[in-house]
Amino acid sequence: MTTRLIKGFHVSQASVGLRLIHWLLGIVIHIPALLYFQFKKRKQPATATLLDQQMIQQLSTDYDQRIDYFNRDPNENEKQAFISKEYALLKKTEQQYRLNYPQFFEQLLQSRRFLLLTLVPGFFLYLFYLIYHHGLIRFIFERLVATVFVIFSVIVIVFTLLYFSPQDPAQNILGDQATAAQRENFEALFGLDQPYLVQLTDRLHGFITFDLGTTYQGNEDVLLNIENRFPVTLTLAFLSLVLAIAIAVPIGIISAVKVQSFWDYSFMFLALIGLSIPSFWQGLIFILTFAIELDWLPSTYIPGQFASLIMPVIVLGTGLSATIARMTRSEILEVMHEDYIVTAKAKGLSNRRIFTKHALPNAWIPILTVIGLQFGAMLGGASVTEKVFNIQGLGSYIVDKQFIPDIPAILAGVVYIAVMISVVNLLVDLLYALLNPRLRAELND
Amino acid sequence: MTTQQIKQHDRYKHGQFALVLSLVFTIFFLYQAFIHLTTVYTLLALAFLIESIIQSVLLHRLVKEGITPVAHSKLTRALTLLQVFSLFSGNVFTASFGFRLRQEKETISYTFMTYIFIADVFLVALTALNIFKPYVTNSFLVILISLVVLTVTDGLLIHYLKPDLMETKQLTARMRLLIIFLVITALTGNVIRLLLSYQLYIHYIQTDVSKREQSSQFWQKITRSFTAMLGLLFIVIIFSLSWMSTFTFVESFAVENNYQTLLLEPSLTHPFGTDNFGRDVYSRVVRGGVISLSIGVLTTLIPMLIGGVLGAISGYFHPLVDQTVMRILDALYAIPGILLAIAIIAAFGSNTTNLVIALSIGAIPMFARTMRANVLMIKNLEYIEASRAIGESEWKILFKHIVPNALAPMIVRATLAIGTAVIATSSLSFLGLGVEPHVPEWGNVLRVGSTYLETEPYLAIFPGLSIILLVLSFNFLGDGVRDALDPKMH
Lengths: 445, 490
Prior knowledge:
CATH superfamily of the largest domain in chain B: MetI-like
Number of domains of chain A: 2
Order of helices and strands of chain A: HHHHHHHHHHHHHHHHHHHHH
CATH topology of the largest domain in chain B: MetI-like fold
Number of helices of chain B: 21
Number of strands of chain A: 0
Largest interface: A-B, 56 and 49 residues
CATH architecture of the largest domain in chain B: Orthogonal Bundle
Low-confidence stretches of chain A: none
Helix content of chain A: over 70%
Oligomer: heterodimer
CATH topology of the largest domain in chain A: MetI-like fold
Distance between the termini of chain B: 22 Å
Number of strands of chain B: 0
Structural class of chain B: mainly alpha
Number of helices of chain A: 21
Helix content of chain B: over 70%
Strand content of chain A: under 5%
Largest sheet of chain A: none
Largest sheet of chain B: none
CATH class of the largest domain in chain B: Mainly Alpha
Shape of chain B: globular
């Protein structure tokens, strides 16, 4: 336990930012410890006088030896100057090597009694050390902090955009005939007459306490709206992701294994087309073909009916599959040109074994990253797909509310999607750290 | 050359690609002919079928006789020539293959010239469709005739350029004339003409050998990749057709309501039909091409510049600057581009300027990250240390030595991003959030079409196909540029 704490303490001394946090978190402990340290330091010099005498003796013999060596006449003044100069120099280095506060604090940390005594005021400091003593835990922790920071920044950015909007929600909802009093009443009701910072802190506070306010139009509870619409979008996104991975990864692998063959070219051509189709157009063509002409599937989404989700899932998954397939192929090809694959070939391994044992484990890590990054783009595209298939999801919610603009609703919608994306990216990064041996080793150092 | 080598050769692959696409179109036209029973589709199907057969015979003979025309028998040469003429049935794939097969050594100038010619032919044909309209613009006939003359001139130039233009080292008066001719005729919107004149300029006037080599190596790779060239070709056709439409297409057909021609089926007069206001969808699509293209290009260039500068600064200077800039961009990155654009448009109203700004802001983080990664890599190289040692200023090192060398991945990103930007633009227009509704931007055209999906599906199909063609072209070109610039591929 104490060794872990001390390791964490060492890590925290490495950079300016961390040192600052270490001071701030442990201020309650540091102040008495510093006082005690100063007190102890003042007591020290008394024992050092004897050592000083020895040192001067040593320097004087040094000087004599030098004079002897160079065959010069001894000079008392020069001797004194030499001794005082060297003595000052030695003192200075000694000062540096002398016990300083960090070392002193480290000694304190080693004693169990001290820890027990300061456990309550120093709880956060010790937690901080424990987090930072291990590379992986530190990585996870920092990643979590970054995610929270990103989400807060998203709230600030989107709110600022909407705040400085020249559009007037009061006029859009109440109409041109509204009197000035009605408008003022409306603005007071929703806090629109407050200054920027007050509104912003209100919003931030609202997000922390899950009180997202009500929409300007219809006075609906935004949180309830989001709760109702979130599951559809999440299902849609998740199913599309699964479909995309299930289709694209095998295609990418086949294309990479049979590179420059007919299959490779055909698949990559198809992937390029998939990348080039606007999803709303694909949706329209699907509706035209499978709903209107063939009458196989319902043309719009009906809650609870799985068949009506098939077309949206395919449409949303197309772009993602195209990207993943292209990425998978190029990553595997890149790995196949590495030296260790040549070595494996030279050892006489079969192609299958090279592929499953050496190529795939190295190629899938970047593929995972791409999947994580593309997930965000897909969620953005979800708003268009949801509009085409008339799905009451989060994306179409934002689009519907933007005409007023209904600030609480848009803000909440965008932030929840950003949260979803950040969480997925966080998970991808954590998986990456857990499963990539190279990164793991780097973190542990 | 062994059979294996021939089959791995670029030309053979080009031939295969042409054959497959030609067959796909044959089947498509056959299907259409079968359903609609029109002569146009039947003729097209027949032409494509014949061309596909010739193509497969040609490929077969290619394996036997080798890929250079010197070794070819008379029959093979005749078939190659026949494939060149397949251009007039609209089969670009076999035609470009025929052109390619006719030259001994592949040169940049010849390839460019053939594609200029193909673009000319398409421009003339697509413009000439206006003949079937009730009336045409005043300048239509003059421009059409001059375009035909230009096409014939270009056809002759192909023959003239067949021996490599760049064999001669001296800049002759003739060559100077050719460069001037190309630059002037580039006013038709044919960007390949500019590229060719730039090539000639580089070849004759640039004295720095390494720069010359670098440029010609890049273009050599691009011109050899037929998919990249096809992409470039389609972009040029769409652009120049749309660019010239001010003089050749009657504007009122595209933007003014005409209640005599509501919701007509596709015909020669109205190739893509007419919409619910009686506007000719073909004219609208042609007119809107420039709008969609320029929005796509702008929403790529603006974030490329801003993101590039931010990325370069944060990659080069103190970690504190780096952390500040990148953390702010991280927050932007967490919002999907389209959603951010919706939020910005919600706040500031939907018009073209706001759309461009909105889409640009969303793309900044991607470019900044790319630039930063490159700068981080390059700033540790020895030549940067050397320039620091001779005491150059930090900004000069950054923008004179680092950034030019970090541009390649940015260019690749940008080419691929234009396609995405075009899709995003039309998606937002489709949601009613982009360009003003009366402007014939492709997403707008499609939105009108989507409301008549059950009864008049062609209203949605044709504009959609145009978008796909444009985006696909940019993706093909982007892939080509990536392969040409990426050192890892070789």
